[in-house]
Amino acid sequence: MDFNAYSSEVLEWLEGVRKNRGTDAEKTLMLCKNIRDYAREQDDEKLLGYAYYYSGETYYLLNDVDKLFCNLSCSLPYLEHSRQHGLLARAYNILAITSMNRGNAPFAMDYYLNARMYCEKYKLYDIGIIININIGMLYNNFGEYRQAEKYLEQAYDLLQKNKEIPEYYSYLLNIYIGLGNSCFYQEEYMQAQEYALRAKEVCSGHLEELEQIAFACFEARLCNAMGKKEECDRNIAIVQKVSDTRMPILDIFDDLYAYCEMLLDTRKEEEFWKLVELLEKMAREAKIIYMQKRILTLKIRYYKRQEKNREYLQACGLFFELSEILEKENKYIMTCILDMRYTLEETNHSRKKMEKENRILLEQSQTDALTGIPNRYRLEQHAQKVFEHAIAEKIPVAVEILDIDYFKQYNDNYGHQKGDLCICRVAKEIQKLAEKDDIFCARYGGDEFILIYEGYSREAVVILTEKLKRSIRDLNMEHAFSEAQRYVSISQGICYDIPDADRTMKNFLQKADDLLYQVKEENRGGICIGSCR
């Protein structure tokens, strides 16, 4: 998205967001506020979408789910309307992750599919990879392992075609963990181990701390299932170093939760409680009720097994209270989503209406109002493309200028209304010829018209121009004031050559005009063809 047209102050804010996102949350949010305030004053949808998106992304990293949801929901119509499709797909992806962690899998899938649609439509390969990974993870969570593998393999294929992206090793690790989990849940441990070995071999030395933790969680569970106690303990030691509540809980929760289940099953109580308390604190700070319920589920299972009835009953009571809160939260979220959907539909309707109006205006700006054929502006655009192609391919071009013989006398004696009708009937015959491939026509002004023939032989051009002359003569429009013929006729000058750096559209036009003048001096109603040389 090009922002170069903005003032230096706005460009400085935008650059500040790019530099500080993910590293300095406070500064990023301050800069986003500056952009948002300015954008509101200017009613600038592009900047509003940008500012709301990066605010939402920052709150995602801060685990502030309410502000995340609010900002990203606000960003969607602005991003859609200003056609910032990359940020739009990313916004849908974060909203999907948030919905999944709030226990709303159908909403999550809906968001993911929206994001995937934009990725496919606009060839957003980098975000498309992570969308496919996340859909695969979602299917894994619900036991649809074959579907999970399908999306994860699509992500892998797409990643191998785009190895230059900065997130290559991070995405590859997530794919291997996803495919490994799919095998793990089906008790295909040897195949799961193969994915773990591939991840180690390719990704080691390229991973951030969070990614190392996610892999250690997976490998610990796999080693435990395969009875590899020493390797399991080694990975447990890596995970137990986690103590930073500032890590993005939405990115790591599922990995840590599955890992906690393994600790509970293997009766590693000290490690279990340390991590459960950390997750509980993070979930409370993030105000994610569904996560708090899932953590309570682990505690309830523990209390029941240990026959700690008082703690068990307290936890069950809290679980019930959270269920009621979650039900209210889901109703609120549904209302927000419906409002957002309505806003997006209105935005799409408005955008389509505007695009239609713009298309009409563009057609009007490029079409001659009287005849309906292209005008001089459209001629210049088309000629540039034709000559660039002809120079590159060394193919011939013919440029014809024609006008109506003694048209001033026709207009003065028959009246302007009849004069306009005459021009329209001539234009219609010219347009019929231009329906052929690689022939273009335009009204040049007054009673003058231009045709461009691309790739035709000289003989073919002569035949076509003769045919055009006869078709206009056959209209039998009486012209008693013509000194050429009794009926409306045309004179034609044609420049035929192979364009190069010294023979451009300007040169062709000048030569065709000279040839037309020659015809009018020597033989009105005739044709003269020559080259630029």
From TrEMBL:
Bilayer-crossing regions: none
UniProtKB keywords: TPR repeat
Protein name: GGDEF domain-containing protein
Lineage: Bacteria, Bacillati, Bacillota, Clostridia, Lachnospirales
TPR repeat residues: 129-162
Origin superkingdom: Bacteria
Cross-referenced CDD domains: GGDEF
Gene3D superfamilies reported for this sequence: 3.30.70.270, Tetratricopeptide repeat domain (1.25.40.10)
Domain GGDEF intervals: 395-532
Signal peptide: none
One Pfam family linked to the record: GGDEF
Organism expressing this protein natively: Roseburia amylophila
InterPro entries, per the entry: Diguanylate_Cyclase, GGDEF_dom, Nucleotide_cyclase, Rev_trsase/Diguanyl_cyclase, TPR-like_helical_dom_sf, TPR_rpt
